[in-house]
Structure formats: C-alpha cells, structure tokens
Amino acid sequence: MAEILVLVDHADGAVRKPALELLTLARRIGEPSAVVLGAGEAAASIAATAGEYGAATVYVADGAEFTDQLVVPKVDALTQLAKEKGAAAVLVTSSGEGKEIAARVALRLGSGLITDAVELEAGENGPVATQSVFAASYQVRSTVSHGVPVITVKPNSAAPEAAPAAGTVENVAVAFTGNAAKVVSRTPRVSTGRPELTESAIVVSGGRGVGAAEGFAVVEKLADSLGAAVGASRAAVDAGWYPHANQVGQTGKQVSPQLYVAAGISGAIQHRAGMQTSKTIVAVNKDAEAPIFDLVDYGVVGDLFEVLPQLTDEIGAR
Ligand code: FAD
C-alpha cells in the first residue's frame, strides 16, 4: 500500500491535534507512517499515539539540531525519508513553519506542492487535494503531476479518528546538511489559557461592533463558555482593541473551525477569506442587511451586548 509520510507536530511532549487529523486523512489515500522529530524522551509516547491513529510505522529521529536550528533539520529528515522509503506523499500541517518545511521538501524532491488543503481523497493519479481559493469563493481540486506530492493541510479539516495500527518504531539517523539558521532565544507566548486560534474547533470573533477594547469581555466570556479561541476583525485590531495575533482574515490568520461565531462583524471579503471554510457559521449583527448574513448557517439580528450574554448564560446552564 502507498506509504504516506506524516510529519507529527508536537509540543510539550504531546502530539498536537492537527497531526491526528493528518493521520486520519492520510488513511484515505494510503498507509500512514508518522515522522517524529526532536521529541526527546517524549518520542515513545508520541509514537504510541501515532500508532493509535493509524501509523503502521513511526520514524523517530532525535538530535539537538531539531531544537537548536530552524526548519532545515526537519527538511533534511523528511526529504531523506521520502527518498529512502519511496513515499507516495508527504503531509504537513498548514502552519507557518509547516508551509516552509513543505515548500523546501518539495523543492529538494523536485516535486509539486499543494498548500492549505481542506480535504484529501485518493485519485487515479495520486492524492486529490481540495483547496478553497479566491477568498473562499471557489473550491479547487488538484493533484500533483510531478514527483512525490507534498501537501499541507489546514487544521480542523478532519475530525481525528483513532484506528489502531502497528506503530512500529524505526529509529532514523538523519544526514543533516548543516548551514541552518540557529535559534538564538525563545520567548514563550503569554498564555491566555484558551486554545490556539488556528487549531481551535470553535472560534468566537468580535469586530468593530464590539465598540471598544472593554467590549471584548462579552466575546471572551462566550468563548470561555464554549472552550473556544477568540478572534477579531481587522477593524477591531487596527483600533487597538485586540492583538494582531488574533486577527482573522486575509492579512490575519486563516481558521477553519467546526463552529465560527462572528459578533459585530460585517463580513467584508477580506474577513471571509480567513473563516469562510468554517463548518458552521453563526453571526450576531444588529444590521439585518450585513453581508455576513449571506454566508451564515444561523444568523441573529440583534445587539451583541444583549445576545452574547444570553448565549453564555444558556450554555452555562447546560
Ligand atoms: P465593520 O465593517 O465596521 O462592521 C461592523 C459591524 O458591526 C456592522 O455590520 C454593524 O452592523 C455591526 N454592529 C455594530 N454595533 C453592533 C452591536 N452592538 N451588535 C451587533 N452588531 C453590531 N479585515 C479583516 O477582518 N481581516 C483581515 O485580514 C483583513 N485584511 C484586509 C486586507 C486588505 C488589503 C484590506 C484592504 C482590508 C482588509 N480587511 C481585513 C478589512 C476589511 O475590508 C473590513 O474593513 C473589516 O473586516 C471590517 O471589520 P468589521 O466587520 O469588524 O467592521
């Protein structure tokens, strides 16, 4: 069966959810093999999790290179494995780092690259990836016609499904190419205790309608009641009400959660570009003509300062 290499993202010794989604999607196009890099002592438990989610083989490589340098050691490892194992495809999460790794691997392999896929299926000529393009106005299905397909997949594109497999661990000695940029220091992001925006299954976003930085309190309360991440429109970010790291849209982050709640957001095309692939969209806006209502599954015409607290209370009561 076609071997699909899946780069397993991990943090703090645990597998990150997008990697489980990749393993789930990989099973649709072949037999997944997990690639676990620079996990140190956590490698065994990460490998076990990868096995639970369908990895027949788990390639483990360790070394200070993976933590002391930027992406090149990971590129070395993935390229080497893709060549040695004759992989049928390489899957990487669509994060900033993931896309850089994927692009470099594709270049080294002389292959085609597809980024930001939201769906994968098996096709006659290899994996078929669905992308959402032109501010999510169109869905494009594409295959790679040259070399080993390298595909990045957006978080939340599939619900992780366990499917226990052998998960046989194979240690790999990577021939590092060196010449990599070194990490000088790391500044941990101040944790809000909320899920990472691009990975969260639920996102609650506020826009100019929130009116002020303090107005985001109602957005945060609803988000916390749902275990959601908080997003913001550019108008809210430009006004200084919420950090740019939380901006959703063309010049912010792309999110694709199971549920997206837009409060006081008009639905400009540049905002849609970052959230239109969300599975269920709910909008709260006091203007019944707001363009956001053209794409919602559920719309509430009303004042967000009345509607959001009621929603929060209702969820808290359940
Ligand atoms: P508005 O368009 O002002 O809408 C506010 C909405 O709140 C209105 O619909 C109003 O009816 C409603 N409202 C007001 N008070 C209440 C209330 N009390 N209760 C309920 N509803 C209320 N935008 C992004 O979001 N992300 C991007 O990444 C992005 N990138 C851009 C890139 C470029 C090159 C350009 C040109 C623009 C970009 N924009 C982006 C900006 C975008 O065009 C819009 O200006 C922006 O999305 C508007 O934000 P908003 O919906 O919060 O504000």
TrEMBL record:
Domain Electron transfer flavoprotein alpha/beta-subunit N-terminal: 4-187
Keyword Electron transport: yes
Residues at which FAD binds: 208, 233-234, 247-251, 264-271, 285
Cofactor note: Binds 1 FAD per dimer.
Pfam families to which the protein is assigned, alphabetical: ETF (PF01012), ETF_alpha (PF00766)
Keywords (A to Z) from UniProt: Electron transport, FAD, Flavoprotein, Transport
SMART domains in the record: ETF
GO terms of molecular function: electron transfer activity; flavin adenine dinucleotide binding
Family listed: Belongs to the ETF alpha-subunit/FixB family.
Subunit structure: Heterodimer of an alpha and a beta subunit.
Name this protein carries in UniProt: Electron transfer flavoprotein subunit alpha
